[in-house]
Amino acid sequence: MFSAQTYVERRQALAHRMEGRGLVVLPGNGESPINYPNNAYRFRQDSTFLYYFGLDVPGLVGVLDTDTGEATLFGDDFTVDDIIWMGPQPKIAELAVKVGVTKSAPIARLETTIAEATARGRAIHIMKPYRGETRLMLERIVPDAFLAPSEALIMAAVAQRDKKSAEEIAEIEKACAIGYKMHTLAMSMCRPGVREQDIAGAIEGVALREGWGTSFHSIVSQHGETLHNHSHAGTLQEGRLLLVDAGAEANSNYCSDFTRTTPVSGKFTTKQKEIYDIVLAANNHAIKVSGPGVRYVDVHLSSARVIVEGLHGLGLVMGDIDAAVAAGVHALFMPHGLGHQMGLDVHDMENYGEQYVGYNAETPRSTDPACSTCRMGRRLEPGMVVTVEPGLYFVPELIAKWRAEKRATEFVNYDRVETYLDFGGIRLEDDMLVTETGTRLLGKRLPITTEEVEAATAASLG
Ligand code: GLY
Ligand code: MN
Ligand code: MN
Prior knowledge:
- This protein has 462 residues and is an alpha+beta fold.
- It is 40% helix and 13% strand.
- It folds into 2 domains: 4-161, Creatine Amidinohydrolase, Chain A, domain 1; 166-461, Creatine Amidinohydrolase (Alpha-Beta Complex), CATH 3.90.230.
- The chain has helices at 4-17, 47-53, 80-86, 92-98, 108-119, 132-141, 151-161, 166-189, 196-210, 270-289, 296-313, 321-326, 330-333, 354-357, 396-404, 414-417, 450-461, and strands spanning 23-27, 33-36, 39-40, 61-65, 71-74, 103-105, 124-125, 213-214, 219-221, 241-246, 248-249, 258-263, 385-388, 391-393, 425-427, 430-434, 439-441.
- The strands form 6 sheets. A 5-stranded mixed sheet has the order 6-5-4-1-7, with helices on both faces. A 3-stranded antiparallel sheet has the order 9-10-12.
- α8 (166-189) packs antiparallel against α9, α8 crosses α17 and α10 (270-289) packs antiparallel against α11 (296-313).
- Bound molecules: glycine (GLY) and manganese (II) ion (2 copies).
- Residues 216, 245, 257, 340, 389, 429 line the site of glycine.
């Protein structure tokens, strides 16, 4: 948690952007039961609430009056019955002071506050709820006229949150340092006979020991071609590749998100190295051409060109390289975008809607096959943190589908591509800060060249 002043300034800036528009209602998250209310999943605070109200406590709602700039924290003090089970806790009024809020009230007052405001003709602004409980609560207390997510609020919050302050960058760098330990540990454990679960458990332990925990379910899989593969059921086999996509949250909930791909045998085969070096070239290229004022969709497309050019060199793609990129041929091999924003959430603010976070009026979402998979397309600005995560995957079902549909037959050498059906996938992901003059990778860069990755696995292979 930052100082109270940080939250005061954040709310003042939001009130200023939203001036005259009414009340902003920001529910924090509640406890989420596994099978009954007192057996809950681990609590994770809503990131918008965390950004403006900073308190990592369930059951709170923050309200900001955009005219007066006054904030109120709604929540219920612990009863003795609560204290028996969960220990003494600060009163809501004491919590409020920690984040510079002078007014607090029981949660039951929220409904009347909203009713009084709307009776005086004032508007209510909410974000789109992503949890059922929050949605039900809002549907109960917010008049229908204001239940649609407020575009004014979303755009104000994005404009504020997408430029990370120095204290936020420092927290992201803490998360990156944890991510570094997780990934180098995974590399050092990577050898035949080790279970994916062994590695997943070990690196998630690091995330819990060093910070809040993981920033998303760790992907630790020899089936790297399955983009979000959450199974850890495999045992590492000679000759395969292990893809690890994992990150941490610092205790402040700021995130990291890295991917590396490691040969189980400790050495890349020629075929693996050829594909790996294409992904590495795309990653380095993306970092080099990124900077303030550059549209990320253009970085996506020019990195896709590096990938297509590399595949052309291996005979998997044929014909004119630019025409192949324009036709979206890279989407057969990299069916995802180059990256996303990262901050208090690993996919920062994506609950607001990709069209607001990754796109804007100048750069609207495209349906063009060449960039339709890109979730972040708009111009980079100093202070933004984005991931750079090109990959190359051989998804047998996707290849079969494209072939059956006779898609891009002038560009794809399907016979040759089918010799890679058991290859798996490679992704290389770094976290990048956009600066005034260019970019800077956050955290110490993980081993990334084939030589560096082989060296990082060598210790365990003896
Ligand atoms: N960890 C998911 C992603 O890289 O987007
Ligand atoms: Mn990732
Ligand atoms: Mn990512």
